[in-house]
Specification:
The complex is a heterodimer of chains A (about 300) and B (about 110). Chain A starts with a helix and ends in a 16-residue tail after the last strand. Chain A has 10 helices and 8 strands. Chain A has about 300 residues and is α+β, with helices and mostly antiparallel strands. About 10% of the residues of chain A have low confidence. Chain B is mainly alpha-helical and about 110 residues long. Chain B is built from 4 helices and no strands. The chains are: A alpha+beta (about 300), B mainly alpha (about 110). At the A-B interface, helix 2, helix 3 and helix 5 of A face helix 1, helix 2, helix 3 and helix 4 of B.
């Protein structure tokens, strides 16, 4: 007989030993010595100690079955209680996120308003002297480049969006979060947004904003987990890049750029959303600038 | 059978009393219940095949529960907790199915 036919697979062993071999062995032992088994216990009075042990063991069996019943009911109860708790916690987190984001937005609007106010008062104060007026002109010119003031005018809106149904269906449903980081074709990366923004700059945009966040010289576009962060603002697909400049030049520039060609290729192969729309009266909001670090008292 | 009655009593007690167990038991509870379920099914099949032995049942019940809990505990400490508990559940699941099929054959003669 070849070794293969004698060896059995793990599954065969499992299925075959499902009836614990100890049962058959015990039954064989009982059959081999008939006086010490069930048949003997009932008839021979001299077997009372064994019968007593048997009764004790029977009670153990019933006790264990009762304990098993309690454990089963308990485990089922615990499981049924846990799922709604998880859902409740998640719901509370979502409410928290929404309210904090709204508070964040209102604070940002407040900052913008105060910045505009400060700029106006600064201009008024500076215009009182000649050196001040020169400074005013320099500031106005730098502001437009740096992003301190909102810019209005004609331009384009470039929209990038994830391909539909690229979201990992099991991610976020209570499964391991590692699934979210698995590369999925058709998802816009921070690199794509950054390349598109750079292409807009190269095509002659005067000001660019992504998702309502003005791009300055120090704005970073990066990924945190599943989300793209522009500055410190998390954004979701679709990503709108608004650029103010000559619309025709911008559209042509994007189409010619390496980034534009690559994104158009992804649009064909992976189904990401990639579209440009011209606009006549676009607004690129001002950036929230950091505090100046160097100040020199002016001579009046 | 008295055994079925004992089980039913246990279930009722568990549902009515709603006992609480310390929370560190939580990860081991489902595995322990599955291990106990395997022992119960094995005992039921042995009873139907007329080879039931109480000592074997008690020992197999307790050792199943303890070994399953130990394997899960060890797996947690080693960092393969999820995989080991999956393996334990798979093994017990196969045995439960095999025993249930044998019980079905005995009960329905089919």
């Amino acid at each position: 007989m070849s070794p293969l036919s004698r060896s059995s697979s793990l599954l065969d062993d499992l299925a075959r030993d499902a009836l614990d071999p100890a049962y058959t062995a015990a039954a064989a032992r009982r059959a081999a010595s008939p006086g010490a088994g069930t048949a003997g216990a009932r008839t021979a009075g001299a077997r009372t100690p064994v019968a007593g042990t048997r009764r004790g063991r029977a009670w153990a069996v019933w006790l264990l079955l009762a304990v098993f019943g309690v454990g089963l009911a308990f485990a089922v109860h615990r499981q049924s209680v846990r799922a709604p708790e998880v859902a409740r916690a998640r719901g509370a987190l979502i409410v928290d996120i929404r309210s904090r984001t709204a508070a964040d937005r209102s604070l940002a609007t407040q900052i913008n308003g105060l910045q505009t106010d400060t700029a106006r008062q600064r201009a008024a104060a500076l215009s009182q002297s000649r050196t001040g007026a020169d400074l005013n002109t320099r500031i106005a010119g730098l502001d437009a480049v740096v992003g301190g003031t909102a810019v209005h005018g004609a331009g384009v809106t470039l929209r990038l969006s994830d391909a539909p149904a690229t979201r990992n269906p099991t991610a976020g449903a209570g499964n391991a979060p590692d699934d979210i980081l698995a590369p999925v074709a058709g998802r816009i990366l921070d690199r794509d947004v950054a390349d598109a923004a750079n292409a807009l700059w190269a095509a002659g945009a005067r000001a660019v904003a992504v998702g309502g966040v003005r791009l300055t010289a120090t704005t970073a576009i990066r990924t945190a987990g599943d989300t793209i962060l522009v500055g410190f603002t998390p954004l979701q697909s679709p990503y709108d890049l608004v650029a103010v400049g000559d619309p025709d030049r911008l559209v042509a520039g994007i189409a010619d750029s390496a980034a534009g060609r690559r994104l158009a290729g992804y649009h064909t192969t992976s189904g990401i959303g990639f579209s440009i729309a011209r606009g006549l009266a676009l607004t690129v909001p001002a950036a929230t600038l950091t505090m100046p670090r160097l100040a020199r008292e002016s001579d009046r | 059978m008295i055994g079925a009655l004992a089980l039913a009593v246990g279930l009722v007690v568990g549902v009515v009393l709603k006992p609480t167990a310390p929370s560190w038991l939580d990860p081991y509870l489902p595995i322990a219940v599955v291990a106990a379920l395997d022992a119960v099914f094995g005992g039921l099949r042995a009873a139907l095949e007329k080879v039931f032995d109480d000592k074997v049942f008690v020992v197999s019940f307790i050792s199943n529960v303890l070994v399953a809990a130990l394997v899960v505990f060890l797996g947690d400490k080693l960092g393969v907790g999820g995989q080991l508990s999956t393996a334990v559940v798979v093994v017990f699941g196969i045995r439960i199915f095999a025993n249930a099929a044998a019980i079905r054959r005995h009960v329905f003669k089919a």
